[in-house]
Specification:
This is PITH domain-containing protein. The protein is α+β, with helices and mostly antiparallel strands. It is built from 6 helices and 13 strands. A hairpin with a 5-residue loop joins strand 12 and strand 13. The two termini are 83 Å apart.
């Protein structure tokens, strides 16, 4: 009986051990499957959060596009009326104060009246020689003045002994033309190179609003050998240095008279139409190489400013594309509600 029970017990325990072994073999696979599902669940949660963030950004983008559309309409309205603004500014800037009649105590006017001459000095040295006249009166000096059209802050002067002295002599008004407290002097040698830009565009809207034609140059130095003698003019060149100015042919070369009075040097007007900037190269003085200093106390310009008669261009921009406006642009393409194109999209 005892032997029977032992055999029976052994027979009963053996299947149990086999079953436990099979369960332990299946457990790692099940755990891996569960981990995989957990990872998928975490990815789905992250995708849900990203989708919510994307939806919020799309709503913000829609609001910004609506604002852009309103702003575009406002800009179009302003541009449609901009030509009137330019015309008003041009009319205001072209007004020059009326010159006063010369007073009886003016020595220049009194001398003209007594001597009965016109105060003109002519230089007949050829086509490229300067036609100079001594300016004795206030009226001819203010006529056709380009003072208000000079961009003073952008004037550059090479080889000036004192920085900013080139700007100071150009910035003098006609009432200050005889003032010698502010003088431009050369530094290393007798040569000076000045760049004079003219203003004919608005800072808020960089388009040309007018055209400048140069008539003459007003110059005052002194009657010493330091007075400039040879002046070369270059039209619309902002890239010149002394080497380039010496090598390139000038637009016009002028020979300046030796005088302590304000002298008006006429230029060939046909050569200086549409003048954006002017470069002045004072190549030599009256010392014939003995003096290394060239001195200038006043520099002015005369000419005319003409308003450009051009209307503003109004452009309409499409802030957001409308798919209905672009149907059948590509044959065989279907455009859905989202404006997406493709073959047989099935939207």
């Amino acid at each position: 009986m005892s032997n029977y029970q032992n055999r029976y017990s052994q027979h009963f325990r053996q299947p149990s051990a086999s079953t436990s072994s099979a369960g332990s073999q299946q457990s790692p696979a099940l755990v891996a499957r569960i981990n995989e599902k957990k990872q998928e669940l975490e990815n789905l949660v992250a995708l849900r959060d990203l989708s919510a963030g994307l939806a919020k950004q799309m709503e913000q983008l829609e609001e910004k596009l609506a604002t852009l559309a309103d702003g575009t309409e406002a800009v179009a309205a302003v541009l449609s009326n901009w030509h009137n603004v330019l015309r008003a500014i041009a009319m205001a800037s072209s007004k020059i104060p009326q010159p006063k009649e010369p007073a009886e105590d003016n020595p220049f006017a009194r001398r003209q009246k007594e001597e009965g001459n016109d105060g003109l000095r002519r230089d007949e040295n050829g086509d490229d020689a300067a036609e100079a006249s001594v300016v004795d009166d206030l009226t001819p000096a203010l006529q056709h003045s380009l003072y208000q059209h000079i961009e003073f802050d952008k004037i550059t002067t090479l080889n000036e002994s004192v920085e900013g002295s080139g700007i100071s002599v150009v910035k003098k008004t006609w009432d200050e033309c005889l003032d010698t407290t502010k003088v431009l002097e050369s530094d290393a040698d007798e040569q000076l190179l000045m760049f004079i830009p003219f203003v004919f565009a608005l800072a808020a809207l960089p388009v040309f609003t007018g055209s400048i034609k140069l008539y003459s140059i007003l110059l005052r130095s002194d009657s010493s050998p330091t007075s400039p003698k040879t002046l070369k003019l270059y039209l619309n060149r902002d890239d010149l240095d002394f080497s380039a100015a010496s090598d390139l042919p000038a637009t016009q070369t002028l020979e300046l008279p030796l005088t302590a009075q304000v002298t008006e040097i006429s230029v060939k007007r046909a050569l200086f139409n549409n003048c954006h900037s002017l470069t002045l190269f004072f190549e030599s003085n009256h010392s014939n190489g003995e003096e290394d200093v060239t001195r200038i106390s006043y520099l002015g310009f005369k000419g005319s400013w003409t308003e450009l008669k051009k209307e503003a261009v109004v452009a309409n921009y499409e802030a957001a594309a409308n798919p209905a406006d672009h149907k059948n642009m590509v044959p065989g393409t279907n455009y859905g509600a989202l404006g997406m194109g493709g073959h047989n999209q099935g939207f």
